[in-house]
Amino acid sequence: MFRFDEKKRVFFAHAKDVSYIFSITDKGYLRHLYFGAKISETDSLELLSKDFPNSFSPICYEEDTIFSLDVALQEFPTNQRGDFRSSPIVARSSNGSRVCDFVYDSYSITDGEKFPSDMPHARYGGQTLTINLIDKVKKLKIELNYIIFEDCSTITRYVSYKNLGDEDIYLERAFSYSIDFFSKEMNLITLAGRPAFERNVEITPITQGVKSISSTCGASSHILNPFVALVEKDISNDYGNAYGFNLIYSGNFKTSIEKSSLGDIRVLGGINDESFTALLKAGESFDTPEATLTFSANGLNGLSQAEHDFVRAHILDERYRDVERPIVVNNWEATDFRFDTDIILDYIDKASEIGVDTFVLDDGWFGKRDDDTSGLGDWVENTTKLKGGLAPLIDRCKQKGIKFGLWFEPEMVSVDSDFYRQNENCNIGELDRLPAKSRHQLVLDFSNPKTVDKIFNAIAKILDNNDISYVKWDMNRYISDNFSSYLPPERQGEFNHRQVLGVYDLAERILNRYPSLIMEGCAGGGGRFDLGMLYYFPQIWTSDNTDALERTKIQYGTSLAYPLIATSCHVTHSPNALTQRQISWETRFAIASLGAFGYELDVTKLTDEEKKIVREQIAEYKTVRSLVKNGDLFRIFSPFSDGMFCVSVVSKDKDVAYVAGMKWLDAPNNKHVIIKLKGLDDNKNYFVKELGLTLSGKYLKNVGLPIKNGYDFAQISLHLSAVKKVG
Length: 727
Ligand code: GLA
Fold this sequence. Notes:
By secondary structure, the protein is an alpha+beta fold. Strand 29 (518-521), helix 8 and strand 30 (539-541) form a beta-alpha-beta unit. The chain is globular, with a radius of gyration of 27 Å.
C-alpha cells in the first residue's frame, strides 16, 4: 500500500515484510529515508533527515536546515549540481550541457501496475506510485514509477524520461533506479562465471569507490548476471539483512555500487550506458526497463524465498502456474546434427518406454543444417534428413502418447542460408566492414521490425502446420558489430536496446498466437538467464554443463535469485561429455530433480536395467514435482564453502519436505555429516521415508540426521511428510 502524508510530505510504501519511505525537501528534492523491514508510520523519521556535509560539499540552500546534494541520501540524484557520486541520468541538451536539476512536481497513486512500454514487467495485481520531477531549464520530465504487490517483499521501479521542450535531448545514461543506504559495512554478492560455468557466487566487501556489474554482450550473458545482493557483513543463510537488486531485462545492463567518502552506499542500475544514447525529440518519451528491489531480514534463505515468491507470482506467466512442467527428453547430447527420420523414430519409441512427457528435437531439423556452419534462418523442414518432414515424427509421438517439442534459434542467420541470400542487409553490422562471426553465424537485425516479421511468419508456418507443444529458443552467440543499417545515424545509440525489444516482440507474438505453447529459453546454456526472459520463458536451460558436481555450484548460485522451477535440469550420460567425470545415476538425479526436469542422453542405448532406473526416477520426480515448483528453498550446505551441496524444499504449509544434494570427495574414516533440517514446523512430526522413522520437527531442526559415509559424489535424498501434531 502507498500513502502520502501531505503535512510531512512523506511517501510511504508498505508491502509484505518491507517498508520503503522517502520525502520531499523544502526545495523539492526527493530525500530517501528508509528501505528495510516493515516499520510503523508513527515512528519518527525526523532523525533521518539530518545531513552532515563536509568542508567541500556544495550547499544547495541554507534555511531551516543545511542541505547538500553531495551528502544527502536521495531518491533519484541529479547530475552536475554538486553531488559527486554517480548519477542515474546523464542528459545532453542541444546546447551541449549535461547539467540536470530535477525537482518535485506532482504525484499520483493508481491501482494496478504501470509498466514500461514494449518490455517485460511485473504483473498481476500491483499498485503504482508515480512521482513527476521536472528540470525546467532542460525541459525534461522524469516520471519515477514504484510498483508494489501486497503479497511480496519486492518493490519494482522504472523511469519514463520525457522531453517537454522543442529541442532534441540525448540521454547518455538513463538508469531505472537509484537508492542510497546510510553508512554501513556491507558485502556485495554477485553471480559471476563464463559459458558452461555460469552464476557462481562471489562475495566481496564494498569499499570506497565504484564497482560495476555489467554486460556489453547484447545479452545478460554467462559472465555476470544482472542480479546482485547487498548483505550485512555477518549474514548467514538464516539471519541478517539482505537486499536483492535485479532487472527485468535481457540486454546490456549495468549495476553500479558506490561507497562514498562518508561510507554511504549508492546502488544504481539499468541499461548499460556504454555505447548507449537515446534521442528524445520534442514530446518523445523513453521508458527504462523495470528493476526489482527486494528485502529480507532472514538471511540469504529469506532473500531467495522472497525473490522466488515474487518471480513465481509476478514475473512468470500465470498460464503455467497451475500446470506441471513436462518431463522432457532431448536428443542433442545423443545425436547432435547426425540424425534422420529412422534414427529419431527409434529415439521416440525408446523415449516413450521410459515414461517422459515430451520429446524435444534439437538443432539440425531445418534448412541445410548438417553442422553449425549453415542453415540458420531457414525455418523449413530439411526433407533430405527428415523424409516427410516433421509430420511422421509427430505422428509417432502421438501414437506413443507423448508430446513434441522443437528447437529454434530465431535471432541468428548463417551466411550459407537461403534467408541470408534472399534478404539483403538482414544481419547487423556496418555494410563496408565484414562482421565478426561466432559459431560461424551472424546476428539478424531485430531492431528492424520487418526482419522480426519475416522470422515470425516462418516460425508460425511450422507451428501452424504441426502439433508442437514446446519450443526451445536458443541464442548461441553474443552481439558484435553493433550497427543497424535500418536505423538512422542519430538512433544508432539505441541499437542494442532496440535489438532486445525485437526479441521481446517476437516472443510476445508467438505466445499470443499459441497460448498453450511452453517455451524454454537458452543461450548456449545459461547465457541469458534473467527476469526479462523468464517473463516469456517459464524455464531456461541452466547451463550446457550437465556434470552433476559442477551443476551444484551453477544451480546454487542461480537459486539465489531465481526459483528452482525456472532452471531446466537434465540427467545426462556418465562419464559427462564435458568433464569426463563419472557420477552415479542416483546423484545425477538428485541434482537434476531440483528444477524443471528431463533427460538428455541416448535413450536407444539404455540397457533394460538403466531403463528401469530412469522409469523409477521419473516416477520419483513426479512425487516432488509440485513441491519443487511451489515450495520454499532452504540452503543447508554450500558447494562454495562446505565441500558438499545440500538443500531442502519445504511446502508452504510445512507438511512435506524434500532434501537433495551430493557429497563431494569422501575419505576413509570420515566423520558422519549431520544435516539439520530447516523450515519444518517444530510442532509437527515427520515420517522420514529413507529411514522409516518418525521424528519431530524440533528434533530434525536441532539434532539433525546423520548422513552415512559412502563414496565420492554420493547422493543425498530424503523425503519427509508430516504425520500428526505433537501434543
Ligand atoms: C546450444 C544449447 C544446446 C544445444 C545446441 C544446439 O549450445 O545450449 O543445448 O541446443 O546449442 O546447437
